[in-house]
Amino acid sequence: MGRKQQAPYDFQCPYRDACPHLGGISTTWATEIIRDVQDDTYRNCHFVGHAQEELSALQEDNQRLEKENAELRARLKAQHASRFKPNRQPPRDSTQRRPRGAPKGHPPWNRRAPDHIDRTVAVSAPTTCPHCATPGLQPTGEIQEQLQEDIVLQPKTLVTRYVHETAFCPGCRRPVFQTAEGELRNCPIGPTAKAAAVFLRQELRLSMRSARKIFQHLFSLDFVPASAMAFERKAAHLAQPIHEQLRDKVRNADIVHADETHWRIDGKNAFIWFAGNSNFGFFHIDPSRSSQVALDIFGSHFQGNLVADDYAAYNAINAQSRQSCLAHLLRKTREISDLIFALPKALQHPRDLLFCEQIKTLLSQACDIGRRRDTEKLSFTNAKARIPSLYRSLYNICKNTLHHPDAENLRQRLLDPNRDYHRLFTFLKINRMPPTNNYAEQILRHPVIFRKIIFGNRSELGARTLEINLSIFNTIKCRRLNPIPLIKDLFLKGHRRLANALFDDSS
């Protein structure tokens, strides 16, 4: 009898709930699992959920990258616009266009008349017209005078021979002689030439070879470029005590402007620091930009009023009062505003743009108050009384958080009592204090141009020489004195006469 092909109709398997061929599991449950796998219902639901999570994460990353890309593009566009400004001018109404040249009714500028006449040249009346060549002219008897001032170029030098009579000194146990007026001992080049060479180098920023060419072609005085460097070092060595006195002037001054910029010493990064006011100037070159350098310049007990930017190194000075540069803040506000405008419209927030415009208006109003006070259109008392209203306006502008990170950073910076909050309107509390650090930046233009010419110093000695000479010449300029006679006296008689000329009672 053969095996049946299928079970009977009413057959019940005794292993239905625990089949040994299926590892002891229920045949019903195994059948349902096989059906689900064949239909892919469970598997599709599982993978669709994972795919949706991955898609959401990718969309978030894509939005973040698009925002970062737009931010970087906006920063690049703003940076390019700040460096490469277009030459195109917006069209203006012809009625509002100011005519070129001096205003109508402006008095002409005339150079000063010479205070002496060295020679007089008589010129006879012409017999032929110099314009149309008409012959047979008759003199009119009138006189036409003209003063002409010119320079005298003498291609020679003044060579002086000093003949010294000696006397025997029992203390030195050798013959000695004294120095004549205007004589530099053991120096083949006189003090006037040395002073002029230092002037050409420090004030006119000429190279040593260029200074040598001027002396060689105009005065027939020849020397090697190394001699010009020796002149500078000698002047700096003699003026070293005056440089230290200028440091003391910084520490005892009422109002001091301070700033720093890049420099190079033997190809390595360094910084040149400036501190001073309209009466004197002090320069210091140092490899560091830390607060310790600021302490070395101002001292640990500086009791004056400081005008500087927001650089944190000046916090260690603990000045009595400090004014932050409002020009830096205005420039920062304009940069943030241009950066926001460069973003796509969807990423621009009106509150951020409104904040920038209101801050620019507020700081401009503060500067206008200081300008009116300085021109005596507003009294010092009335200008000082405007400070509370300015702070109330600042609080109303900065009370809400902003979306753009740069704008929010500026808002927090303006409200931070350890940064700019208490330094915004200090200039209205102290008479003659400016709202910006423009004075120090203008003074540092001279060494910045000098750096582009000489690319820094090659040694520490060269840096010390430069900082002393820059301090001396800047102070001489502040005192409105002629530098060449003073440097000549420095070579002849040391630093005392120069110090007396620079540090009188009015300084």
3D structure, described in words:
The chain is α/β, with parallel strands linked by helices and 507 residues long. It has a domain at 326-428. It contains 16 helices and seven strands. The strands form two sheets. A five-stranded mixed sheet has the order 5-4-3-6-7. Strand 1 (167-169) and strand 2 (174-176) form a beta hairpin. Helix 3 (191-202) packs across helix 4 (208-218) and helix 3 packs across helix 5 (225-238).
Which labels suit this protein?
507 residues, alpha/beta, two-stranded antiparallel sheet, elongated
TL;DR?
The chain is of the alpha/beta class. The chain has helices at residues 27-39, 41-83, 191-202, 208-218, 225-238, 240-252, 291-298, 326-342, 350-374, 380-385, 387-398, 405-415, 438-454, 460-478, 483-493, 496-502, and strands spanning 167-169, 174-176, 255-265, 268-276, 281-286, 305-308, 321-324.
Number of helical elements: 16
Rough outline: elongated
Question: What's the helical proportion of residues?
Answer: 40-55%
Distance between the termini: 135 Å
The beta-strand count equals 7
Mean pLDDT: 85
**Percent of sequence in beta strands:** 5-15%
Structural class: alpha/beta
Q: Roughly how many Å is the radius of gyration?
A: 41 Å
What is the topology, as strand order, of the major beta sheet? 5-4-3-6-7
Biggest sheet architecture: 5 strands, mixed
Extract low-pLDDT stretches.
none
H-E order: HHEEHHHHEEEHEEHHHHHHHHH
